[in-house]
Design a protein that fits this description.
- This protein is of the alpha+beta class.
- Helices cover 20% and strands 31% of the residues.
- Strands 1-2-3-8-7 form a five-stranded antiparallel beta sheet, covered by helices on one side.
């Protein structure tokens, strides 16, 4: 995975993440005033204006990429002199609260939002994949947190080896992965509970300094039958999850190929192993 940071004049931090030939994926974080970060007089997910600004900035950076993006062609993007300001953008909520981007009244690339500490995050993927992002802080998982109701022993044991045995950090890492995946599915945890997902061992570890990891994720057969979008994960190497440490938090990005494919596999959980990682 390659990550590049792009400076912005309004304290907006934009990064590009390449998922081995998929994407491009862009995400940005915007500082939230301290008076609001505690949830005072605003939504915990940020205001509509902040989300609009984040997505508009991500689109502007997307326009600046050297390689043409297929979905932009109907809007006349990708040519000299064109930018996102020429068409109105709108963020709307779909079924179960999933955000959707409209560009000039037509569906745009997949987007996702989350909040972590005093920052609002937005993610965007322009290759037709669905995207989900999430950030989790270790202090959200203190000693009285019901770990056994959320995580499987094997996945928790493996996560512990990646965070120097710190249980709160392991829980934050796993939670961010699972939350990102259900956001990519579009159901959050309304139709799927955390233990109906399994985070498999990391298939890649970058330098200790970057603390980046890649994961495969599986869902239970019960969840796949209950929630139709989950069948996309059966026998189809389409889910990619990347996690990395970001200012004392674990931040994860999940990509899901929206094209459904079917395959029968034995076992309670349906593993999901991308063909190329690392």
């Amino acid at each position: 995975m390659e990550t590049d940071e792009i400076n912005d004049s309004r304290e907006l931090r934009v990064k590009r993440v390449d998922f081995h030939g998929r994407g491009p994926v862009l995400y940005a974080s915007l500082p939230i005033p301290r008076a609001f970060s505690a949830g005072q007089s605003r939504s915990m997910q940020g205001t509509a204006e902040e989300k609009q600004y984040l997505i508009s900035s991500l689109l502007d950076h997307l326009m600046a990429l050297s390689q043409p993006i297929g979905w932009l062609q109907p809007f006349g993007f990708g040519h000299a002199g064109n930018d996102s300001a020429r068409l109105p953008i709108q963020v709307v909520k779909g079924q179960l609260g999933r955000p959707h981007l409209l560009v000039g009244g037509r569906p745009g690339p997949a987007i996702s939002f989350c909040q972590g500490e005093a920052n609002l995050f937005a993610g965007l993927c322009a290759d037709g994949s669905d995207i989900g992002i999430d950030a989790a802080h270790p202090r959200e998982f203190q000693a009285n947190y019901p770990l056994n109701r959320v995580f499987h022993p094997k996945e928790l044991d493996h996560a512990l080896t990646m965070v120097n045995g710190k249980i709160e950090a392991a829980a934050a890492l796993l939670w961010s992965v699972k939350e990102a995946v259900v956001k990519a599915l579009g159901c959050a945890f309304h139709l799927m509970n955390p233990r109906q997902m399994m985070v498999y061992p990391s298939t890649r570890k970058d330098s200790d300094k970057e603390q980046e990891h890649a994961f495969c994720v599986g869902v239970s057969k019960k969840a796949a039958m209950r929630f139709p979008m989950a069948v996309h994960m059966i026998g189809d190497p389409s889910v990619w999850v990347r996690s990395f440490f970001h200012k004392k938090m674990w931040f994860s990005i999940a990509l899901l190929n929206p094209q459904p494919r079917y395959a029968d596999r034995p076992g309670r959980f349906i593993p999901h192993f991308p063909k190329r990682i690392g």
